[in-house]
Amino acid sequence: MARMRRNRGQSNERYPRMARVNELCREILADELELIEDERLELVTIINVDVDPDLRRARVDFSSLGEGEEEAAEALDEHRHRLQSAIARQARLRNTPELRFTVDTVIAHAARIEELLAAQPPIPDRDVDKDKYKGDDD
């Protein structure tokens, strides 16, 4: 007789394991960053975490408001061991991934695109012969 499998919350088909691990690590890192008293990390946001399937490494994308991205990257690297131990303590994974921090450039690219679009002259409306598209009222 086949055993019925209980569905606890979301099914794995809709939300795969690595996506859950990535989100869990992102939440742990974001919470731990709030506890670290370092001025360079005050305006840092963890955007995305991408953990390798073997759980050995994780790329952590972050953004920092203002001009301090290099200082924030340096501070994150200094606090890397504390952040990794927070993941080990809270996530209970088989391996604790080694964290590598990269600046997320999506926001900067989006701002540049908006800047370029704003600099373009507006596109004039085409003169459409409105009578051409009216039905034959004759």
Describe this structure in words.
This protein has 138 residues and is α+β, with helices and mostly antiparallel strands. It has a single domain, classed as K homology (KH) domain (GMP Synthetase, Chain A, domain 3, 2-Layer Sandwich). Helices cover 40% and strands 16% of the residues. The chain contains 4 helices and 3 strands; from the N terminus they run αββααβα. The chain has a 3-stranded mixed sheet. Strand 1 and strand 2 form a beta hairpin. The longest helix is centred in the N-terminal third of the chain and has 19 residues. The termini are far apart.
Which SSEs are present, and which pair or pack?
Blueprint: H1 17-35, E1 44-51, E2 57-64, H2 69-78, H3 80-91, E3 98-103, H4 106-119
What characteristics describe this protein?
three-stranded mixed β-sheet; extended; alpha+beta; GMP Synthetase, Chain A, domain 3; disordered N terminus; 40% helix
Major beta sheet summary: 3 strands, mixed
Gyration radius, in Å: 25 Å
CATH topological fold name: GMP Synthetase, Chain A, domain 3
Which architecture would the CATH scheme give at its second level? 2-Layer Sandwich
Q: What's the quaternary structure here? A: single chain
Low-confidence stretches: 1-7
Please state the overall shape, judged from the principal axes of the Cα atoms.
Answer: extended
Q: Please, how many helices?
A: 4
Structural class call reads: alpha+beta
Order of helices and strands: HEEHHEH
* Strand-residue proportion: 15-25%
Q: Give the number of DSSP strands.
A: 3
CATH class: Alpha Beta
Helix proportion of residues, in percent?
A: 25-40%
Total individual domains:
1
The CATH superfamily name is K homology (KH) domain
